[in-house]
Amino acid sequence: MVVSLFDEMIIMLTLSVISLCICYRLKVPSILGFFITGAIAGPHTFKFVKSVHEVEILSEIGVILLLFTIGIECSIAHLVQFKKPALLGGSIQVIFTVLSTFFILKFLDYKFGEAIFAGFLVSLSSTAIVLKIIQGRGEMDSPYGRVSLAILIFQDIIIVPMMLFTPVLGGNNITSDTSIIVILVEIIAIIAIVITGVKWIVPYTLYRITRTRSKELFILTVVLICFGEAWITYSAGLSLALGAFLAGIIISESGYGHQTMASILPLRDLFMSFFFISIGMLLNTGFIYENFWIIILITLVVILVKFIIAGFATVLLGYPFRTVILVGLALSQIGEFSFILSKTGITFGLMSDYAYQIFLSVSVLTMGLTSFIITLAKPLSHIALKFPVKLKTVMLSEEDGEEPDKKDKMENHVIIIGFGVNGRNLASACKITGISYVIIELNSDTVKRERLKGEPIFYGDAAYEAVLHHFNIEKARIAAIGINDPPATLRITEAVRRLNKSIYIIVRTRFVQEIDFLYKLGANEVIAEEFETSIEIFARVLKKYFIPSNEIEGIISRFRMNEYKMCRTSPDLCNNIQDLTCIPAIEITSLRLGNVDFITGKSLVELDLRKKYEITLLAVQRDSQVISNPDGNTVLKENDLLILLGTAEKIAGFSNLK
Known about the structure:
Layout: H1 2-26, H2 30-41, H3 52-73, H4 76-81, H5 83-107, H6 112-123, H7 127-136, H8 143-169, H9 177-210, H10 215-235, H11 240-252, H12 257-282, H13 285-290, H14 292-316, H15 321-330, H16 336-347, H17 353-384, E1 414-417, H18 421-433, E2 437-441, H19 444-452, E3 457-459, H20 465-470, E4 478-481, H21 486-499, E5 504-509, H22 515-521, E6 525-528, H23 529-544, H24 549-568, E7 587-592, H25 604-607, H26 609-613, E8 616-622, E9 625-628, E10 641-646, H27 648-655
């Protein structure tokens, strides 16, 4: 038997590698590759694997480890961070999906328990697939990424009470006083175990283990905690998965969650692959062929219902129509936790063989379509921007007062789009220097909190022209775009440039490869975090080798010039030769003059800036006076603000003079 199982594992692993390579080439989720492996190797197709029971045991270990890692990720602190979108959005999404499925199936004469249980299965989305796709697109910090994550976290937690409630739906007798008392005692005992583990046992144990500096001992200990807690809950008549989840919560609150996650992930991924393969083995290809159109119809209904309900939950959270579409489509599939729950339902007679095969087929199909659906969501969200919408610019309660209308007063101001780290720092700089600014932010909680602090911040989606018009985009001087949503950044840049041809647009992006496209859309400056971080790193390395600061600045200038050169010389932006900001070798910048003996108190004739330093002085601001086009007799004084024209390297050299 051992040799036979080993041979079959080799076959499964070989098929998995081939399937995953195909999925990678086709850019579809890897989970689909495991399903295909199981379908090919399973008893309904080529029958390569006969040890189905042994594979299911391996898959059960995968489920335990999956719930364990979910428990670690769903720490109490993590839940507090996403409390509003998770509790409000997640509960609305789950409850309304369950009710919708229930009423549809009751109309089709399904039993009460079966209809509710089917609602449980449909309400859960795929955390693994959705988060992997969103992370791969670099959109985890975007509004739709945050809302999707919050709702998925809620779903990952709600699976636990669903599993506890499933026996009730199956008709298990829990109505007697004795049974109720037993359940209450079990719940109290589990809570006591969790509290005791969090407060004393696990932190002390792991502290003693980590002092040995043995990686093997640490891994074995955390696996023991996971499996031990799972065994305790199973012995109490509950599920193994519940115990694993509670063990994860205990670890997450002990301070050793990050190291535990890093140690356990390889094991989880390996055994979870067997879980998805075991699900694929249950797929009956003959059944799918015979019921093809029914499966397609149910799949479309599931996607539509989940899209509408998840979108509705997002609307209630106060997000714009574009985010509603993205979240709704991102959560429109049936998730991997539904497979775990479905096995519990089969145990308690809540699913017939026919219903189970329909469920498997529809689930696998919705998962396989997820990446295509999320890709389709972007053009659909573009279309959504063309719909007339009622402008909502501020989230204020009645006691906060009326919404201020400053449109006519706003002129020559900075529009800050996004109030993350970049937006906060820019707003602080504008406040210190007395520059007029206004902030547009999509997070209503941030808007309400910052308005109480006196910030001129308003709720709105800058991708809508109506929002930009409201903040007088036509008379703004600078637009600074610093949001974590690449598609929205592109649309906002294009809209701002179209509405104001002369505005100076500064865009923050994550990756260098996005720079060229942003320049073509009309950006004047694009700051790539990836590139600027690399500059900061090598600059600090050079300082440790005592390279002079002015030489480091020169190296940085050359790096920036070479990296941005192709983008800044785009023919679309440099048709006007008088627009010197488009010439990559020349910059116009300001410099506050300190007390430099051989500069302050000297006239421009004496300094001869053009000959000695190869720079040109365009203007001098002294207190409230501006000296435009200063002549040779102009004398420079300490604290003068100099407006200089020259290459970045020459200006950097001049600014470092002592």
